[in-house]
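[step 3/7] fold_predict: job queued, chain A
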Amino acid sequence: AFHTGNGTILSYANRGGWDSIAKAFYFCGTSHTAGIFYNKCVVYDEATNTASNFATPAHVPAGPTGGEAPGWTHAYDQQAWDTTRQKLYMRHSEHLDIYTPATATWTQSATMPSGCENNGSYQTLEYFPEMDRIVFVSPFCPNRTATYNPANDTWSTSQTTQGPDLSIEAAGGYSKQGFV
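[step 4/7] structure written:
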């Protein structure tokens, strides 16, 4: 399921989302082979030890294309799993694509703050259950950080006061004390 006739969707190294209740892993990716891109979403079911495809968002063409999918570009750590709502969030260029497995539907978040829409590789997206927020760190966002509130579909930016100078590209992990 992770392979295509032209490579693997794992070559665009997005991180997937683990649903600890349903015991399933959700992953969307794009192959990266000789200019032919294959957009695909896969779910792995632990109970049956099987992987199967699920639909990509309507604005992202599935199957082989002659170029990158609009908004799905070479990026790392651009997916997050919301453990509160059991949803997969995947960053598109100017919003989040949100997959709800219970209804097998995709929706879109509100538009990200101006400046965050850049599709650079070294950006990261993570859900923090203690805050009930999705945090996006990017060298292109105002103040380098944008926060999404899934409860009311809003974005905000705030000045980063802890951690290293985030004017460099965000490549690495995070801790509760700050980004590293």
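[step 5/7] annotate
The mean pLDDT is 76.
The CA atoms of residues 59 and 105 lie 13 Å apart.
exit 0
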